[in-house]
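Researcher: Watch the backbone:
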Amino acid sequence: MKELRELTEGRHNYDEVLDDGFFEKMNDGGEGDFGILGGRVRVHFEAEKNGLGAVLGLDFEGEVRVECDRCSEDLELEIKGEDEVKLAKEEIEEFDTAHYVYESIVLSLPLKRVHEDCLPALPKGVRFVDEEPHEGLGDGGMQKMADNPEWSKLAGLRDKLE
């Protein structure tokens, strides 16, 4: 990836495609793994550099692979974004373009990364049940619950909330 310090003064437009290798390299950098397992992202750069500093704009679009927060399986996410940074002349030498692009992509990711059809994770021993009364209770069991004063208190609270 071209670094700003390598560019001559003037306007520059160029495109790069980021692949799995880019994301592997960025995750191995030791500055934190933000959960991007791989992907393919097209980035368009617009840079303007002069004696006072530089402006770098980027537009990106593509797909990244992350881990589903619920089932831990791979999840493909479409991403799209744009960003711009202005740098003083003194900052250009230190500026890491690859890291800036990576951070922009990370910030474009949703907070919840889940498959559309993925059920929420439940604690061990908890499962979904139908809203209908359980067969094992029968009519007598439901009546016993209705007669219990503790259940009456809860029913009263429910009525107040509705």
Notes: The two ends are 59 Å apart (CA to CA).
